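Session log. Operator J.P. requested a structure for one protein chain; no other inputs attached. Running the standard single-chain path with token output.
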Amino acid sequence: MGGSGPGPQHLLPEVDEEIESWSQAHGSVIAEHGLAPLLEAARGVVAAADAEIAQLGGFVLAHGDLCSTNILWDGSDEVTGAPRVQYIDFEWAQGDDPARDLANLGGAVHGGPWYVPLTEEQVDEFVRAYVRARGEHGDVPDSASDVASLRHRMRAWTAYERSAMLVHVASRASTRASHRRVLPMLRGTLAEELGVDD
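Structure written below.
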């Protein structure tokens, strides 16, 4: 995330680089599907949270790509009966903002198998449950304990990550039926979240 050494870790420069890269690699797709206003609005959401992300005093060990397709349920615990959760695909694991993993799981912006559709109330309870669970295991950095800050940063991560997925899906929609089916839902839910007329 935005920086190679100690000091503030800004997200906005990374987003700017990615948007430029998407424009170069997929400019015609972005134009065809009218994605430029969404990318601009997503950048604005990231910009609004960038200072908050940069001032985080501590990161957590984050999965980095904790979407629903990277979580497996393997039977149930013999004592509690709760499902045993297994995580896969750790290629992007690193010290990071915990809001990134929380945002990647799902929420109002969804489409395809990657994201769990959640209402605002469900997201709020999910974040509060995360904060409670983290507190049961000793000291927790502020980055993982402030619900309001987590929610604000989650919005920035959602804008960034779902924009990246939207460009990815749009770039493959002409050759993959599954991506053609996902595109309208992902585009529509992202547009609604960002306040962009769809």
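Operator note: The chain has six helices and six strands.
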